[in-house]
């Protein structure tokens, strides 16, 4: 059965449609699926209500992140073919259905249903939803692709900020027994469905030949910004894709190095000083890092429109390595220095996520940029496993070796610097894509254009 | 050809679009503002403890 209302041709913008209606459509999806990072709110109640261990209660989230990577990687081409409205609708259905299944699981005491619902079904919603607006935003904002994708991907960071206090308050009022958890999941599923529906109804793709009013493509020769188009299948066969894969993986791993251990780290660093850090202050530090993570997504991604993508990643990776070095050498001597360096690192972590779609667009064109982005997100999944593994393993081994305070983190910080330098080298190796990978002009038309009954070029106001 | 004079319906179009733009930005902006408020409230603990 085919839902005609979700067909790409039905999502083509009518004359006069403002492109500033598209970022809220993207945000309604990303602010919702970003809830995944607030899963920890449900862990303690689930553990006490269902008698689970900490490892078990993390399973729904872990499976969700794995499914995010897999569905983004394997569903990307389908998203490009069916368009953003279809993708957002799929994301809505999967993400909300995941919560409803989890509610049923909590009500009946069946933990496997929570894992399957939230992790597997909801995880598909995460992956499809994450990539759903990327290609569309880049087409609407050819003059500022970094800013546009930065707004959407900032939303993913912002989703946890909303969900964390909201879910906590809901559990407080419904209770933390099975019935209360089920009711909370049920409300999440219904409210997120309503919130994401805005994106499904609002999202539009620009008509064939559309350009922002008064904007002309930059005619200056910029070797890393192509006017050619590369398919997702060809892109993964280029060294540029794998260089960017390494860049993203290293940048994310380095960011997780701080995120994973932020609270114990700041306490250990200043444990033997005249001004030790209390537990509530450490929680405040973690909150500040979340703010830097979110702000960096918008700020640095928008900056990349001005200084270029390659230069922006030079900053993320090069200055990021210097920030880690500063923490390793002087961090325990100055609390403001430690905090500032950590904030900069986390802002680069967020910026790295938000800038990569525009980098892909520069290298591979807009033809299947969403699908290429989906495949690149496997670097995130890898880093999500690699980062915590390195940091926790090193911290444990240093503790076993009898180290304490800032000495616990010296090796971790050195590893992070090396990883960032590897990423820096990979970024330096990025060159323009060889023309043999370019699509012939006729086949590089977008799927929306192929299915649109009337491909007449139109000029709309920005 | 003489330019078509604008009708009240033409004038309502941009106003409706502006209202829609404001509405949808509020739809996503208000929850985000709530999240930011809660976060900043928590982050201040770093300086008060």
UniProtKB/TrEMBL annotation, chain A:
**Annotated Major facilitator superfamily (MFS) profile domain residues:** 1-430
CDD domains to which the protein is assigned, alphabetical: MFS_OFA_like
Q: Which InterPro entries match?
A: MFS, MFS_dom, MFS_trans_sf, Proton-linked_MCT
Q: Decide whether keyword Membrane is in the record.
A: yes
Q: Which molecular function term from Gene Ontology is one that the record holds?
A: transmembrane transporter activity
Name the keywords, alphabetized.
Membrane, Transmembrane, Transmembrane helix
Q: Which Gene3D superfamilies match?
A: MFS general substrate transporter like domains
What is the first-listed, main subcellular location in coarse terms? membrane
Q: Name one GO cellular component term.
A: plasma membrane
Q: Where are the transmembrane segments?
A: 20-39, 59-79, 86-105, 111-134, 146-167, 179-203, 241-259, 279-300, 312-330, 336-360, 372-395, 407-426
Bilayer topology reads: Multi-pass membrane protein
Provide the protein's localization. Cell membrane
Q: Which stretches does the entry tag as region Disordered?
A: 436-462
UniProt KW Transmembrane keyword: yes
Pfam families membership = MFS_1
Q: What is this protein called?
A: OFA family MFS transporter
The organism's lineage? Bacteria, Bacillati, Actinomycetota, Actinomycetes, Kitasatosporales
Automatic annotation (TrEMBL), chain B:
Protein known as:
Uncharacterized protein
- What organism does the record attribute this protein to? Streptomyces boncukensis
């Amino acid at each position: 059965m085919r839902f005609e209302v979700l067909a790409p041709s039905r999502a083509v913008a009518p004359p006069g449609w403002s492109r500033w209606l598209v970022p809220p459509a993207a945000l309604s999806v990303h602010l919702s699926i970003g809830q995944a990072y607030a899963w920890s709110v449900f862990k303690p109640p689930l553990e006490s209500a269902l008698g689970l261990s900490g490892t078990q209660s993390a399973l729904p989230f872990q499976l969700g992140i794995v499914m995010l990577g897999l569905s983004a990687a394997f569903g990307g081409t389908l998203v490009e073919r069916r368009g953003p409205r279809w993708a957002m609708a799929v994301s809505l259905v999967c993400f909300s259905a995941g919560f409803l299944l989890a509610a049923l699981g909590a009500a009946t005491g069946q933990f496997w249903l929570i894992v399957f619902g939230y992790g597997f079904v909801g995880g598909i919603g995460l992956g499809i939803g994450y990539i759903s607006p990327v290609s569309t935003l880049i087409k609407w904002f050819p003059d500022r692709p970094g800013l546009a994708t930065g707004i959407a991907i900032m939303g993913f960071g912002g989703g946890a900020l909303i969900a964390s206090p909201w879910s906590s308050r809901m559990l407080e009022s419904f209770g933390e027994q099975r019935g209360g958890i089920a009711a909370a999941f049920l409300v999440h599923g219904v409210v997120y469905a309503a919130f994401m529906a805005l994106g499904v109804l609002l999202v539009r793709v620009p008509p064939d030949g559309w350009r922002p009013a008064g904007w002309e493509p930059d005619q200056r020769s910029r070797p890393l910004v192509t006017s050619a188009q590369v398919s997702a299948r060809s892109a993964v066969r280029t060294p540029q894709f794998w260089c960017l894969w390494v860049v993203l993986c290293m940048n994310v791993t380095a960011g997780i190095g701080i995120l994973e251990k932020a609270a114990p780290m700041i306490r250990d660093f200043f444990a033997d000083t005249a001004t030790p850090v209390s537990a509530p202050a450490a929680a405040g530090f973690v909150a500040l890092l979340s703010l830097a993570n979110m702000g960096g997504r918008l700020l640095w991604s928008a900056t990349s429109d001005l200084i270029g993508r390659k230069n922006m990643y030079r900053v993320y990776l090069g200055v990021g390595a210097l920030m880690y070095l500063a923490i390793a050498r002087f961090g325990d001597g100055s609390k403001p220095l430690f905090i500032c360096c950590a904030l900069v690192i986390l802002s680069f972590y967020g910026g790295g996520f938000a800038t990569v779609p525009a980098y892909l667009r520069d290298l591979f064109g807009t033809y299947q940029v969403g699908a290429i982005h989906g495949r690149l997100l496997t670097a995130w999944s890898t880093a999500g496993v690699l980062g915590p593994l390195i940091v926790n393993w090193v911290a444990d081994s240093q503790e076993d070796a009898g180290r304490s305070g800032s000495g616990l983190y010296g090796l971790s910080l050195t590893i992070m610097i090396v990883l960032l330098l590897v990423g820096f080298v990979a970024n330096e190796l990025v060159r323009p894509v060889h023309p043999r990978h370019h699509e012939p002009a006729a086949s590089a038309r977008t799927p929306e254009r192929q299915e649109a009954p009337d491909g007449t070029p139109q000029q709309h106001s920005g | 050809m003489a330019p078509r004079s604008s009708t009240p319906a033409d004038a309502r179009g941009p106003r409706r679009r502006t209202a829609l733009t404001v509405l949808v930005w509020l739809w996503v902006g208000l929850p985000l503002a709530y999240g930011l408020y809660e976060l900043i409230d928590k982050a201040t603990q770093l300086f008060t403890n």
